[in-house]
Amino acid sequence: MIRVLVADDEPMIRAGVRAILSTDPGIAVVAEAAGGREAVDLARRHRPDVAVLDVRMPGGDGIEASAEIRRTVPATGVVILTTFGEDDYILRALGGGAAGFLVKSGDPEELIAGVRAVADGAAYLSPRVAARVVAHLAAGDAGALAGRRRAARARVDTLTAREREVLGFLGTGLSNGQIARRLGVAEGTVKAHVSSILTRLGVDNRAAAAVVAHEAGVVAEQR
């Protein structure tokens, strides 16, 4: 059972997050907080597997709480959930140790996928966030960007045709189950493809693979 702490200063948002997570029998919300300081205290008390934190809360924002939770309860992974899409929030959250970043307007399945991924020790960025990370990288030196794109395409060229197809769907944020349904194959087959993709690309998690997918342009192929 994945034990989750939910922190948001709006009761209706907390209720909505709890309701979404309750649809997965393998996830249980064990504590709720209305502020950053309270979230840190409850994380220390309950030692959840994952903490889902809003960005803007009284008593310390979610990014500050994330860094404190990661420092004092390192076994707890953090997912940042927010309505804000500014790059500085994304980069601050990831820099502070958050392993996942989701927007509240995203698909509810993204929340479950994100919590499960972080509980498994992986990272998870919603497709919109992954795209913003790539856009942030694109704002840098044009020569460096072109080099990253060439490198990404070269890495993707090492994949089989099916793995490239799976990577394109992975870049849009689909779960293994969703990809399996799109391709008409068993979920275990997709899981094996994803494992192979991570190895071939030389990345540690789906979020990093999604960034490669966006840089290489394979995400657009699946839309």
From TrEMBL:
Provide the HTH luxR-type domain boundaries: 152-217
Q: Where is the Response regulatory domain?
A: 3-119
Does the keyword Membrane feature in the UniProt annotation? no
Xref: CDD domains: LuxR_C_like, REC_NarL-like
InterPro entries, per the entry: CheY-like_superfamily, NreC/VraR/RcsB-like_REC, Sig_transdc_resp-reg_C-effctor, Sig_transdc_resp-reg_receiver, Tscrpt_reg_LuxR_C, WalR-like
Q: Which residues form a coiled coil?
A: none
Positions carrying 4-aspartylphosphate: D54
| Keywords, ordered alphabetically | DNA-binding, Phosphoprotein, Transcription, Transcription regulation
Q: Does the keyword Transport apply?
A: no
Query: What is this protein identified as?
Result: Response regulator transcription factor
Q: According to the entry, what is the taxonomic lineage of the organism?
A: Bacteria, Bacillati, Actinomycetota, Actinomycetes, Streptosporangiales
